[in-house]
Amino acid sequence: MTKNEKLKVLIIDDDQDLLGMYKTKFMSEGFQVFTQTDGLRGVTDAVKINPDIVLMDLMMPQMDGFESIQAFRQNTSLPVKIIVLSNLAQKSDKEKAISCGADGFLVKANHTPLEIVEKVKEFLID
Amino acid sequence: MGKIRIKLLHKTIIAIIGTLVPILIVWIFFVQGYFHNELLKEASERLSASRVTKSKEISKYFGDLVELFTQETKNDVYFGTISLLSRPDKMYTSEEEKILVVARQNLEHLSSALRYIHHLILTDSQGKILMITDDHPDEPEMRHLGKDIDATFGIRIFDNISKAKSISDIFVEKREGYPNKYRMIIGAPLIREGELHGTIAMEFHMDMIYGILSTTAGIGESGDTYLVGSDKILRSPSRFGGEDGIMERVIDTKNTSHCFSGQLFGDKENVFQNHRGIEVLGQYSYIPLLNWCLLAEINTDEIFAPSKNLFAKMMRGAAVTSFIFLIVAFLLSYKILRPLQELTIQVKKFGEGDLKARAENNASDEVGELAAVFNQMAKSLQGAREEIEKKVEEQTIEIRNQKEHAEEISLERLKFQLAVEKASEHIVILDKDLRILYANDAVEKITGYNKDKIIGHTIGEFWGAEEDFQKTKKMWEDIQKKKKPYRAELKNYKKDGSQYIVEAHISPVLTKNKEEIHFFVMIEVDITNRKKVENMKNDFIDIVSHELRTPMTLIKGYASMILEDFGKDIPKMAKKQLEIILRNTDRLIFMVNDMLDVSRIESGNMELFEKKEQIALKSLIKDIKSDFMLMARKKNIRFEVYLEDDNYQTYYNVSALKRVFTNIIGNSFKFVKAGEGIIKISINKNKTGLLQVDITNNGSSINMSDSKKIFEKFGMVESSINHTTSSGTGLGLTICKSIIEHNNGHIWLNALQPKNGTTFSFTIPHIKV
User: What number is the ipTM of this complex?
Assistant: First the structure.
């Protein structure tokens, strides 16, 4: 990664308003942002785009976040970091997501978009 | 009273008779048999001697007679005499006279030479008597002369004599009018050159046979010897019958037949019944010259008389001995039995219940000793009996009371038994090795397994879930170790394979010393339906909270973004108002989070109660303190921590315990005044062995009437100060209470004096390291 190259983030969420909000914030923070509204297409995009990080919602129609993460991890060995960004807040959800292959877990309502960007940056540094 | 004595006497007599009499009888018979043989032998010898002597004498006599007779038949003088006397003129010359005299002299001579002769008779060839000797003076010779010999003797003998070879048979003839009625006649033909000239005959009486046969030497009182012709007709007089039966009686005995057939007697065959019907010992001698038999007999009665006497004597002796024996036995038994009888009466009396009965025998013999022993026994029995009766009486009363009581108990027990048996909950009793000892009706109804067939097995073999085996195993180990009642939610499987969820209450029942587990009572309640409803409720809350969060996230996100991105461009007023929006959005979000937690806690299935671990309180407090450090600094509030022992450890779900601390401390922050507030955490071990956490603030006091209400949902107390800063959700303390109580602890509130603050206290387990 060079200085000029922007970090690529793929945000997958079925809620257009949220997508718009996070896209705005991540772009203003200098990310190249890709979005997708369902899990299946999100996984396909992730393989195509090979982003630095994927923000994955959990409750989605057709293929939910858990299945999507699992599918991605099973079908590719790309070293993409996947962080769950969801409004499911149970510990069991977090554990399940980690077991499916997620690298992190953030609860949307608990953080402002800026806080999320900060957390993502921390992840990428690690 | 006499019964026993008689019984014993009977026994004594029977014993004597039973032993003595058979011996005596056997002995007597043996002796008698021996004597019989001896006597018979001796008698035989005697009889034999007598018989032989007599037969020899008879043979000799007749032998001599026949010899003489035979010689006479050759004498010329008889032929001359016959021819002379047959002449009709009777005139003889002297020469001729001489011949006649010689002939007469010869006959006379012969007559005197032979004893017992009556007559010697000379006949002519026709049987006419020519010459006759007469030893009887009264009987004139002339009477018979010229007469026929057969007519004279009344018997047909001439034919026999004339045709005999040399000498005729001996005839025995009966002649009336003579002292000896029976005579014997024997004759011989006088033959020269084949021509019969005449006969010579002799009549002699029986005296000579009497003489021989009447000798009783050797034949005793009853012995008899007699002669029998070949026609088996008696020829001689007998000792008992005299002359009766001569030439008449047929002697057809064994003796006769054996004699004439020449058969010898076998062993003991010579004892038989004779012609008189008397049992005799018999012997015979055959006399060839006469073709007669001499029979000799002795009555067996006489022979055995000595042995009979002996037998009688012995019997008499035996009887006398037995009698004496009996008398002695009677006397002795009476002497022995009398004290025994006395003792018996006393024993009987005692046996019939007279415990005072005692024997009065001081004799130094065995009976006396027995009596003494009896007395001693009776005495101790009497004592024991009296004591037993007393005890029995006491116990009867006690048993009666117990029985009444037992009936009550058994009724109570039946009630309990039925309650367990018919309970709708699934109840099993397990032994300490978890084997089923009992299962109630509901077990069969719910699981489908026969409640009797599962006895002795473990529940793991039936409805106990296999996939939860490790978990279940751990659970049981835990119960066995702690020996305390336990509650758990378990997945069970019915016989048909379907799954159901139960709430199991397991109670270990301890032995009396409380050290060992006696058995377990396990009650399982099917909560499958409840569980379904709860899950539905949880799912609903999950979805609702998720859906609520999304718009709040957007509000929160955009509000913060406006402030971040356009903060400098908007009026101060609008900025402040945006901050309020943001703060209350957060409040809403917390509220949703807390609501979710409360609903989960209430359903008893919260993750906060699982995954317990050992926690060092010192490091936990350190973490919590650092979480609040920023806020504390911001509000200028002093934070104090006091730990009685730095090594205190507890056993908890970390998140849950943190939540409790966070909620209470967060709550305290709302009450204390900025700049002067102090929040103090202290941890001590209390009297019950639990760790007590006290979180004290010096903020506004809470009215004690609210101290309970405060733990209820939305039961938040209005703080007297700073309404704006108390931004709780109203659920935090409710969550704390649920967590603490689910971990068997208590939580309470102590309001200090007004304005001196409030203390929240709760207890957690203490783990010894």
Answer: 0.89
